[in-house]
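Dear Dr. V.,

Thank you for agreeing to look over these. As mentioned in my earlier message, I'm a first-year student in the group and I'm still getting used to reading structure tokens, so any feedback on how I've presented them would be very welcome. I ran two proteins. I've put each sequence directly above its structure. The first is here:
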Amino acid sequence: IDVLTAGAAQRGLPIVDIKRPLLSEKNNAQLYYRSDTHWTAPGAFIAYRALMDRLNGEGVSAPILEAERVTFPDRPFSGDLARMLGAPERVEEVTPWVLIEEATPYDEYESDDFVFDAFKTRIIDTGAADAPTLLLIGDSYANALMPFLRESFSRIVFTHHQLGAFDRAVLDKYPSDVVVLEMVERMLAHPLAPQNVDGAANAE
């Protein structure tokens, strides 16, 4: 991630480094599950705020969810680490979840466009007046961002990055005010090589 961040800065590409804000808060809240590889809700909220601060700094006019409207009550949870380690039983823990005061209502549906490994494209409409639209090309980490992103965007299209080889046709299919590529660091072992409509790798 440090190499990617440095390379992006040299090329003038906007990148959000989530590592530093997470490290600065790791002693104040449980940011990752103990039984799972993903962010908890507090961890995702830190990532959301870092993303929105950067977008606003880039001139994107989008409302940012205030921390005062967010609480993190505990709930039972069982994650994916036991399965990945070959354990015969799931491991349950108590972790922070998310509640948002006066959360924005929304409609959500799935599309068979750009399906990857049974991961379907999701379209979320909030109808929020004067809020921009978002195309989020990401992975399972983005799921925890959704409750927060719904407070900032009028429409969210969420499709998988396909290990860096997503179809560039998604940009034309779902034109949006903001496009974000979210990728967990371990996926950077795969080359970022988006495909053209005809399936050929894009060299740009």
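The second protein is here, in the same arrangement:
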Amino acid sequence: MKKMKFLVTFVLLLSMSFAAVAQPASSDAILKKAYATAAKEHKNVIIIFHASWCGWCKKMDRSMADASVKKYFDDNYVTVHMTVQESPDKKNEETPGAAAFLDKYKGGKAGLPFFVIMDSKGEKIADSFGEGGNIGCPASEKEVAQFISMLKKTSTIDAEGLAAITTVFRKNENH
């Protein structure tokens, strides 16, 4: 009987430790680390709200990671992702606190991806709302122009970099 209690206790403790490991970091923890890094490196923070089912979210990530533009983003921003609006079978992957943060910046009903650009002190300096609503992953000429305008205001990316970013993001319209 003692062996059985020990075994049951051991299995419960083991399962709780795995559950703790699987829990995503909270939005507060993610932001605290991002703001500290941004302050240290003299950058701003891009917070991208996304979900695993979101094709445009994947396009946004691929575009920002494209070899021709990645350095521009890396040199000017600390980029973090927060998972929101997941399908019911993946709710456990959502970033705790991210939905409230998204709602605070009026992105809860805007569609994904949604991004907010913050300074290193946590003050919003831009978001993904353009003239027609959330530009999400910029693709059309107008959306990309609005995105470039945001980047001009929030970074030191030069004209060559902005042109490269324009080229990469414009490819999203046809894919």
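From my reading of the second output: The two ends are 63 Å apart (CA to CA). Residues 101 and 153 are 23 Å apart (CA to CA). Does that match how you would interpret it?

Kind regards,
E.
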